[in-house]
Specification:
about 170 residues; alpha/beta; disordered N terminus
Length: about 170
């Protein structure tokens, strides 16, 4: 009588990749403000793009501070920039080093700051907002009433539109 055996299966599981690809936009954890941001630029260069992205991140952080939030999640579709917030110093990050230093200084205003990378298709609303902003004649705050050209993207992401104002935690 033959004995059947199972093939050996490894119980090792790869550690989670902090820059893993997510399949859909997820709302923030309880008591967190989540900001997806993007930058827009006119020049066709990696450095110009990275500087625009980093400057948009600084605006996002300053917005959260001005509203009194203590816990924030910042989401970006630039792996280079997100890795830079985690201490990486290659891939042209020298161009945004002063902005990364400012991120560090301003992080003292928060009890918790999380940086997440998301693929571009999950950062559509921020990408669209940046493109609209690049064409704008003046700067506006769209937190309460986004422009009509952005509403469709927000609704497709499952967000109430116009967004409901949430008090700081």
């Amino acid at each position: 009588m033959g004995v059947k055996t199972r093939p050996a299966v490894s119980s090792w599981v790869a550690p989670p990749d902090p820059l893993r690809q997510t399949s859909r936009w997820l709302p923030p954890q309880v008591n967190f403000l989540k900001i997806n941001f993007d930058g827009a630029w006119q020049l066709n260069s990696f450095k110009a793009a990275l500087v625009a992205e980093a400057a948009a991140g600084l605006c996002a952080i300053k917005y959260a501070i001005s509203r009194g939030y203590r816990k924030i999640i910042l989401e970006k579709d630039s792996k280079v920039l997100v890795k830079g917030t985690r201490g990486a110093s290659n891939n042209g990050l020298w161009a945004v080093k002063p902005l990364l230093d400012e991120y560090d200084k301003l992080s003292s205003f928060f009890s918790d700051v999380k940086w997440n990378w998301v693929p571009r298709h999950l950062n559509r609303a921020a990408h669209k907002a940046a493109a609209i902003g690049a064409r704008a004649v003046q700067l506006d705050c769209w937190a309460v009433r986004p422009p009509p050209s952005l509403v469709g993207v927000l609704v497709s992401d499952g967000l109430p539109c116009p967004p409901v104002e949430v008090s700081a935690q």
